[in-house]
From TrEMBL:
One of its GO terms (molecular function) is hydrolase activity, hydrolyzing O-glycosyl compounds. Keywords: Glycosidase, Hydrolase, Signal. Belongs to the glycosyl hydrolase 5 (cellulase A) family. GO terms for biological process: polysaccharide catabolic process. It holds the Pfam family Cellulase. The lineage of its organism: Bacteria, Pseudomonadati, Bacteroidota, Chitinophagia, Chitinophagales. Residues 142-301 form the Glycoside hydrolase family domain. Residues 1-22 form the signal peptide. It comes from Chitinophaga japonensis. This is Cellulase (Glycosyl hydrolase family 5).
Amino acid sequence: MFIRKSLISLACGLLLCSLANAQQKWSVQKANAWYAKQGWLRGCNFQPSSAINQLEMFQAATFDTATINRELGWAGDLGLNVMRVYLHHLLWTADKEGFKKRLDTYLDISSRHGIKTLFVFFDDCWNDTAWVGKQPDPKPGVHNSGWVRDPGTMIHTHPDTMQVLEAYVKDVLTTFKNDDRILLWDLYNEPGNRRQFNKSMPLLKNVFRWAREVNPSQPVSAGVWNNSADFKDLNKFQLENSDIITYHNYSYIDDHQHTVDTLKKYGRPLICTEYMARRNGSLFQLIMPLLKEENVGAINWGFVSGKTNTIFAWDTPIPDGKEPRLWFHDIYRKDGTPFSKHEVSFIKELCKPGKE
């Protein structure tokens, strides 16, 4: 009996020790002190023009370091200092060490251009089926025709998926938990999208728990993106558990200002991790100065036009693939010429050293 009680006491002690060592949500003071050291953050959601999705970007056969280096060079010249980059768990399950090595290579290239990285783990957007290997060709004129969710609805049909995802997240976080080339971990992009709603809550809660157990030196977040009643529970959890508040807004300046004013009430730093849709009036010339004035990080969608087809609007395909007169997203063509010289000049001036 004494031995049994001793073992129980030891187990309880180890559990309490583990809980004590687990990272808690950052205090407002810690979050703001961290943010004050970063300077004004500005950048893009980055996908090299040669990759249609997360898998093609980081698979060994299609990991295009030459294109990544060239395009991040353009980003550095433009005055950008952060890129948001999506991962996919299938890359890890297929080749754990190779995948992590390619992430390290990417970070080396990025840091040489003065750019930090914001990695995204999970995503509820676009196509539900993903596979390792050759990825589909782009559908002419269709926005993000080859983008894939992670993990998608397989989490509901394959009982072991959650265990695999836990091992994946913890391994990647542990490997890079003290890497100062990484700005922040975006744990889940647009949870509840594609009418998943609260079906995404278990994974959202788990990925925050896994991150806290690893205790990375970088902050963690999951951005709010939809304020309808269907997302009330998700938004509440995201805002209550993120170290730094991140959000998406593709609307005109009045609505974006309202979003900033609303989220500032939490007292935490803000980073807009998706904006800029020209058709919607979410323009660099309007939104970037607002975010700079408010000291909000500004990360727009898209950089170089390529296989993702994000110069085309979400809901307006152009079947013949003809370039639209007004691009929806993106800044440059694959040859480095800009969609708009005036736009690029404006961004460079706003990001010029001494004007930060």
